[in-house]
Structure to design on (125 residues):
C-alpha cells in the first residue's frame, strides 16, 4: 500500500471526531476505511473520499420584517465544490415579510436537487 492510495479525514458524522484513513485502489474506488468508532464513520469516509458534500446555511434579506435577515439552509447536501456558488445564488434574494419556517426560497438551487428553505418565522414590522 503506497501513500498515494491513502487519504486522511476528520470524521464529522458524530461528536467523536474520529481520524479516518481511507485507502483506495488504482481506479479511485475505496478499498477500506480505518479509524472509525461507529458505522457513520465508515459511511462518511467513503462519501468524503469520492464525492464530498456539505449542507449550506446562510441568510437572505428580508423586506419589511422585524428582522433584516432570514436564516436559510439547503434541504440536502450539495457538492462541496458548489458551496460558494450556492451562497452566491442566494446573495441577491430578498423576501417580503411575513415568512414562515419551511418556506422554499429557491427550488433546486443550481440544479443540485436541494432547495433553499427558511429556518425561522419572521413577522412583518
Amino acid at each position: 500500500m503506497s501513500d498515494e492510495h491513502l487519504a486522511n479525514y476528520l470524521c464529522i458524522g458524530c461528536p467523536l471526531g474520529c481520524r479516518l484513513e481511507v485507502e483506495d485502489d488504482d481506479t479511485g474506488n475505496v478499498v477500506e476505511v480505518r479509524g472509525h468508532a461507529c458505522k457513520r464513520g465508515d459511511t462518511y469516509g467513503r462519501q468524503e473520499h469520492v464525492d464530498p458534500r456539505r449542507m449550506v446555511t446562510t441568510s437572505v434579506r428580508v423586506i419589511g420584517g422585524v428582522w433584516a435577515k432570514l436564516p436559510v439552509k439547503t434541504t440536502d447536501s450539495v457538492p462541496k465544490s458548489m458551496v460558494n456558488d450556492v451562497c452566491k445564488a442566494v446573495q441577491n434574494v430578498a423576501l417580503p415579510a411575513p415568512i414562515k419556517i419551511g418556506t422554499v426560497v429557491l427550488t433546486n438551487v443550481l440544479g443540485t436537487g436541494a432547495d433553499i428553505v427558511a429556518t425561522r418565522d419572521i413577522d412583518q414590522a
Observations:
- The two ends are 63 Å apart (CA to CA).
- Strands lie at 6-10, 19-24, 30-34, 53-54, 57-63, 69-74, 78-79, 94-96, 104-106, 116-118.
- The chain has two domains: 3-51, 57-118.
- The longest strand covers residues 57-63.
